[in-house]
Structure formats: C-alpha cells, structure tokens
Automatic annotation (TrEMBL):
<dbReference type="GO" id="GO:0007165">
    <property type="term" value="P:signal transduction"/>
</dbReference>
<dbReference type="GO" id="GO:0006508">
    <property type="term" value="P:proteolysis"/>
</dbReference>
<dbReference type="GO" id="GO:0030288">
    <property type="term" value="C:outer membrane-bounded periplasmic space"/>
</dbReference>
<dbReference type="InterPro" id="IPR004447">
    <property type="entry name" value="Peptidase_S41A"/>
</dbReference>
<dbReference type="Pfam" id="PF13180">
    <property type="entry name" value="PDZ_2"/>
</dbReference>
<dbReference type="InterPro" id="IPR001478">
    <property type="entry name" value="PDZ"/>
</dbReference>
<keyword id="KW-0720">Serine protease</keyword>
<dbReference type="InterPro" id="IPR055210">
    <property type="entry name" value="CtpA/B_N"/>
</dbReference>
<dbReference type="GO" id="GO:0008236">
    <property type="term" value="F:serine-type peptidase activity"/>
</dbReference>
<keyword id="KW-0378">Hydrolase</keyword>
<dbReference type="InterPro" id="IPR036034">
    <property type="entry name" value="PDZ_sf"/>
</dbReference>
<dbReference type="Pfam" id="PF03572">
    <property type="entry name" value="Peptidase_S41"/>
</dbReference>
<keyword id="KW-0645">Protease</keyword>
<feature type="compositionally biased region" description="Basic and acidic residues">
    <location>
        <begin position="409"/>
        <end position="446"/>
    </location>
</feature>
<dbReference type="InterPro" id="IPR029045">
    <property type="entry name" value="ClpP/crotonase-like_dom_sf"/>
</dbReference>
<dbReference type="Pfam" id="PF22694">
    <property type="entry name" value="CtpB_N-like"/>
</dbReference>
<feature type="domain" description="PDZ">
    <location>
        <begin position="88"/>
        <end position="156"/>
    </location>
</feature>
Length: 479
C-alpha cells in the first residue's frame, strides 16, 4: 500500500452487541521488549505454584494460565480480550461475513426464536422457511429458555452436517419438522431500495469484507433504477462497526478525493496515522478500486445519515467524517461512543490477543470515545418518542471504559433522569402484561426516522425530538 504502513494486515473496528469492538493486524516483530517487573512476576509464579499444590482439588494448569491472561487483559478496558481457540474462530467469522449454519436472521419472541428473514439462497431459504416462523426445537432441545446466542450456537456447526428445526407457522396454525444441511453462509451487510422516485435508501448493517463491493453494486442498482437521484439516505442505525478499511471506503464514496476520513493515535509509531478518501487507504488487495465507476452524482447528491445508540465504532467513523466534511446531515440519536482501536495479534495458530492500541479522531480532531457522534438533527425512533432507548447501554456506561483523552467526562443529570423515567415506564408496561413496544423495521413504510429523513431531503418540516439530551459532555482541559 502506498501509504507505507509498517504493519501488514487488515484493521477492523466494531462493536458486537453494542460493546465488543475489534481491530485486527498481523503480528508485528519487536526489536526489543519492555523491561519485565521481576519481583511481581516472581509473585505470580508463587501464586501459581500454591494454587497448583495447595488447592482443595487438582486444577488444570493451562486453564490457570489462560484465566490469568484473560483477567490481566480484561481489566484494562471493555474491549481488550484474550482469544482462546473458540472465540478466535468466532471473531474471524464475524469480520469475514461468513459462517457455517442454516442461513436465517433471527430475533426472539415469547421465549422462542423468530425467523426475521431467511438469507436468499441459503439452506433455510431453499427449505421454505418464512419470515415470522417460530423455531420451537433445535434437534431434541426445546428453544424455550435458551438465550438467543445459545440457539445460534446449536444451529451452527460443521459443513454438511444436519440439524432438525421444529417450526410453528402462525398463519397456518401448525407445527412441522424441517431437516436442514448446514453450509457456509455469506451474510448480506448491505440492503437498499428506492423509497420513492428520486430518493434512495441504503442500509449498512455491519462493515465486513464484502461490504464495499456490495455497497457499490447496490449504488449502481439504485442509479440504474433512477438516474435522476434527488436525495440519498445512508442508514447506519444499529450498525455495530467492523472493518476500518470498509468504513474509509464507504466514506470515500461520498467525499471529495484525498480529504481526511479519520486519524488514529496511540503509543506505537504505527498507530499514529491519517486515513484519507483515496484507494490506497481502503484497498485490501491488489486490483481495481472497488469504488471506480460509481455514478458521479453520488459525490454531490443531498445526503442524510441515520444513526442511533446502536451505531458504534466504524459507523461512527463514517458519520463523523461526513459530518465534519459537511457532506451530509446526521439525523437520529447520539451514537454509542466507541472511539478506540483494537489490534489483534495472533499468539499461535488458533489463539490471539485483542488489545486497545489507539483512539481514533474525526477529521476536525474530535475524539468520540465515551461520547459518540451528536446528530445535527435529533429525531426519536417513533412518533411516541424514543421509548426505552435511554435504557440501552453505551460506551460510557461500561465499567473501566477508556476516556476520550480530551477532558474529563461530566455526567449530565438529565441523562440519569431519562434513564430512571425509562426504567419506571418499562416496569409499568411489565405490570400491565403488555408486550414491549418495538420500533418498526428499518426501511419499512412505518419507519418514523426514515420518514423524517425524507422530509429533510424534500425541505418539509421535520419532527425534531423535544426530549433527547446530549450525554457525557466533556470539560476542556485547563492550560
């Protein structure tokens, strides 16, 4: 790459389930190691020896060592992590957008697994599973009582192995078994459509290896459907992040060439870097620029970027870059606030260490760590308000979270009041026995925030939030 990074490899920045963030680089050779604190290491060895010989029952030596490593790393911040064999495999699957399973997007309903959508062309799609189907059993295990992650683990497995799902289809009022052969699934991180003539909507749900190619294909598809594009909505709501180079590429698709997208800064020389809107900063392999040939109008089409509390890391890089470069209007709710970079260094063939190595900064030099991107226009998720959004965990709520590095955090009493009010509302709803109100599907005709984005593009009045407050304001450092 022409920017001559001293590290080979690829970088990812993201948040899974609103908190887990990842960045990956190949191992970097060190010319020298930092001096070791011998006295403390002797104490560690002594404790290890005592536990091994004196504990009430025999202990697994390898488990003791890996637990010690995990404890040491996890105490640093919420995103540093030791990867054992299993978690390292899951991490790689998450960033590649590939996994072995049946191929369905799922959620939970009444303790059961609900099929949100079968992935087109997947084994589940070919088996005839439909949106709204409920999975009541996975092989011989009842789904009721399982967490969503446990259900996912049971449906995933090795290629060419079989899993039997028991399906309850509401509209037909019947249950039936379906046996599905697992295979590698390629997830779709980009969706899009014409909302109405002249106005396009593109949703990026995560920044993965295939995201840039899929994004470019979707843009061409929309412009082919309507070459006279009057406005575009880039939807980054609930996008937990992903690969940094993909975030730089999506930003570059809308920005003038060579303007700054994001910069990083940390202790290591190679962590001090500025990424610009140019192919050498986002191309992962030799070959053609994945953005080459995009419609020229994409650089100037009026743009709205939708974000919310679930927009984190790489999606905050994109929204921060477009905001600072005055390329689009950011609408929605204040984002998650994950502004740190993690480096994954392999420790062997199947284990690794994910370590926070830098903070990232928007083009104007803002650190969004523990604060997030504040929209230009605050808009609630529904016409009735943000409902339970105040209860969602954000970076600043995580224990041991890294500070912004740009002044002390100041807790806003209004945030605490909003959270307490939301908690009371949730309790009242639970007492009534009512089901929790859920925001409509993104991109649907009942998507309130999307409707307000369309109003903004058309110059119509926008229903601006009257209740949202900016969280975790920061004091300026005294010189």
């Amino acid at each position: 790459m022409s920017h001559k990074l001293k590290i080979a490899g690829w970088i990812s920045v993201g948040a899974i389930a609103g908190a887990l963030t990842t960045v990956s680089l190949q191992t970097v050779a060190r010319g020298s190691l930092a001096p070791l604190p011998l006295e403390e290491l002797q104490q560690l060895a002594a404790v290890f020896s005592m536990v091994k010989t004196d504990y009430v029952e025999p202990v697994d030596e390898k488990k003791l060592i890996t637990d010690a490593i995990s404890g040491m790393v996890s105490s640093l911040d919420p995103h540093s992590q030791y990867f054992d064999k299993k978690s390292f495999k899951e991490f790689r699957e998450g960033t590649s957008g590939r996994f072995v399973g049946v191929g369905i997007e799922i959620s939970q309903e009444d303790g059961l697994v609900k099929v949100v959508s079968p992935i087109e062309g997947s084994p589940a799609f070919r088996a005839g599973l439909k949106t709204g189907d409920l999975i009541t059993k996975i092989d011989d295990t009842a789904v009721k009582g399982l967490s969503l992650s446990d259900a996912v683990k049971r449906m995933r497995g090795e290629p060419n192995t079989k899993v039997q799902l028991t399906i309850y289809r509401k509209d037909e009022n019947r249950s039936f078994p379906v046996t599905i052969t697992r295979e590698e699934i390629k997830t779709q991180s980009v969706k899009g459509k014409m909302i109405e003539p002249g106005y396009g909507w593109i949703r990026v749900s995560q920044f993965q290896e295939r995201t840039v190619d899929d994004f470019a294909a979707k843009v061409r598809e929309l412009y082919k459907a309507d070459p006279n594009m009057k406005g575009m909505v880039l939807d980054l709501r609930n996008d937990p992040g992903g690969l940094l180079d993909a975030a730089v590429a999506i930003s570059a698709a809308f920005l003038p060439e060579n303007v700054t997208v994001v910069s990083t800064n940390g202790q290591l020389p190679e962590s001090k870097f500025t990424y610009k809107a140019a192919p050498e900063f986002y191309q992962r392999r030799a070959g053609a620029d994945p953005l080459r040939g995009l419609p020229a109008g994409l650089k100037t089409v009026p743009l709205i970027v939708l974000v919310n509390e679930g927009s984190a890391s790489a999606s905050e890089i994109v929204s921060g870059a477009l905001q600072d470069q005055h390329r689009g209007i950011i609408m929605g709710s204040q984002t998650f606030g994950k502004g740190s970079v993690q480096t994954v260094r392999p420790l062997g063939p199947d284990t690794g260490l994910k370590l926070t190595t830098a903070r990232y900064y928007t083009p104007s030099g803002r650190s969004i760590q523990a604060k997030g991107i504040v929209p230009d226009v605050m808009v609630d998720e529904t016409a009735d308000g943000n409902l339970f959004a105040a209860l969602r965990t954000r970076e600043a709520d995580l224990e041991h979270h890294l500070t912004s590095g740009q002044g002390a955090e100041v807790k806003d009493p209004a945030r605490d009041k909003a959270r307490e009010d939301a908690r009371k509302l949730a309790e009242e709803e639970a007492k009534k026995g009512d089901k929790a109100k859920m925001p409509p599907e993104f991109g649907s005709d009942k998507d309130f925030q999307l409707a307000q984005a369309l109003n903004q593009l058309k110059g119509r009045p926008v229903a601006v939030s009257k209740t949202q407050v900016v969280e975790n304001k920061q004091e300026k450092k005294e010189n």
